[in-house]
What does this fold into?
Amino acid sequence: MADFERHRPRLFAVAYRLLGSAAEAEDAVQDTYLRWHAADHDEIHEPAAWLTKVLTNLCLNRLTSARARRESYIGPWLPEPVLTAHTPLDTAELRESVTMAFLLLLERLTPAERAVFVLREAFEYSHHEIADVLDLTEANCQQLYHRAKQRVAQDRQRFDADGAEKLRITNNFLVAARSGNMAALEGMLAEDVVAWSDGGGKVTAARKPIRGRDRVAPFLRWLSDSVDGLDVRVLEVNGEPGIVALVHGEPVAAIGLQITNGLVTEFRAVANPDKLAHLGRQVTQHT
It folds into this structure.
């Protein structure tokens, strides 16, 4: 048990990036543990490699079925938000790979492309190691990686704001939204801003993206509502400053802002309660 627990944080980190869901990542890690528990440890010479291989293949199976479920998902699908202030994100690649924008780009890849790309880009596995994990040739892995990198590069953006600037803009955005200062709020939105809202059919949410400053600004009025027990905080969500709204301590929304040239270009709100359970446990644990 102790041997496995030492690897659990890394396994969750890999699974979350592969699946975009904390709940499914936790399930994949638990399934990996069950296989570890039942295995003959005398035959396992490199536990980390063995666990990564088992986990990755479990995630590949889940990705295939997840695609079918997402085709019937009600409204926009967004990755499940996680708090990352207490998660080691030691490299720029590791931090970027957990952002909402990046996870959405990964949705465009095939399961095999995603596995190769995540293991290579975020966790710096060699093509030889990835080939062992996926039971592929090195040449095949290199081909999958090259194709995935091309697809991601087509829409990958290097955002202008650094961490401190993002935090300042996010704080100012929240102040303007909470105060109901629509003029100040509109001034922070790009003209072609897009708001995505993921309610999953469980709560009231826009089922199509809302486009344009004039339409998005009124959509954000709910942040200024006087709701009993409402607490809205700026926390580190998916490696970046984000906004978490709680009612009596339970999260009701997690919001990420995409910022380019000092303006908010995309607004992503996850309100599906099923997707906020993991974040809720994190809030309780760390606050």
Notes: The chain has twelve helices and six strands. The mean pLDDT is 91. The first helix runs from residue 2 to 19. The radius of gyration is 20 Å.
